[in-house]
Amino acid sequence: MSKLVKMKARLTPISYAIQAQVGDAFNMDALAQLFIKIEEQNEITPQLQQVLDYAKFIPVTDVKAAYGGGEILSRKKGVGIGKDHAGTGDDIPLAEVEYDTVQLPVRVGTIGYQYSIVELATAQTMNLALEADKVQAANLAAEKHMSNVAWYGYTTANASGQLTQVNGFLNQTGVTVVTAQYNWATATIEQVLSDFNKSLADAENQFDGDASIEPDTYILASNQYSDLSNRIVADSGGKTFLDWVTEKNIFATQGKPLTIRGSGRGNGKGTAGADRSIIYRRDPSCIQFKGSSVEFLTAQPKGLDVLVPGHYKYQGVWLKRVDSLRYFDHA
């Protein structure tokens, strides 16, 4: 079904009101094209780019399940390592996979935009384009919601008081939390590098060299990122603490890729209000955010206005491999 046919079907409930304003010059195809144009003019504005920051860090996949459905998912953590055979038949080590489960029910968010009937009639009569800012604002509002879900999750209570917990990127359950020993605002470069390597060395021990889940991304809380980028290492030719840590951490010295980036999302989100950094593998086989874009529905008359409601589905962050992510809470 073409976009034009779909849009005409969506606008049928309000066509009589627009026709009453326009008169004999009313053209349903022109009205439909008017709405198609404004809904397609969704440029990535600076504001939208900012709230879409979660998509820079977490692979995003579409929601396939219907509302009311969802998934109960097993998350896995591989353990065990092979060893030399001693020549007896019963000393073969066993590889195990530890599982826990998380629920990812399908949730629905709603948003809408509206224009006045007179505004639409004038635009059609004079062949004027409507500003797309209302549609852009609706998409921005939906993405703000998705961004909060992606980073922080949320807790809701039903009528009987039963809580439903949706976990975000910064508060996943079952992951290792490493605690810094030093305050990076005042620590020496040796102390900072020791802390940084502690978070990675601990990770390396846990991953047992499994490249499929070994971290490749380090999101530093921006408070800490700022401290490192503003402090200069003595006798280094002007290198900052951040430069030094980037070049000298144990992953770098072993030739392993590690992207270090800053984000204000983790400021104050750790244990007891500590800044929290995230160390993880940015791979959809390890972590995903499951969400869909806004779908606008049939237009509805609302007094002298035309309301176009929209909805979107989401399930939140699915940490598929618990051992591919860990948190570093700063002193």
Question: What does this protein structure show overall?
Answer:
The chain is of the alpha+beta class and 331 residues long. It folds into two domains: 3-65 and 105-167 and 299-319, no CATH class; 176-287 and 322-329, hypothetical protein PF0899 fold, CATH 3.30.2320. It contains ten helices and 15 strands. The strands form four sheets. Strands 1, 4, 11, 12, 13 and 14 form a six-stranded mixed sheet that branches. Helix 7 (189-207) runs parallel beside helix 9. The longest helix has 20 residues, at 3-22.
In short:
With 331 residues, the protein is an alpha+beta fold. Helices cover 34% and strands 27% of the residues. It folds into two domains: 147 residues, no CATH class; 120 residues, hypothetical protein PF0899 domain (hypothetical protein PF0899 fold, 2-Layer Sandwich), CATH 3.30.2320.10.
Name its key features.
hypothetical protein PF0899 fold, 10 helices, 2 domains, 6-stranded mixed sheet, 331 residues, 34% helix, elongated, alpha+beta
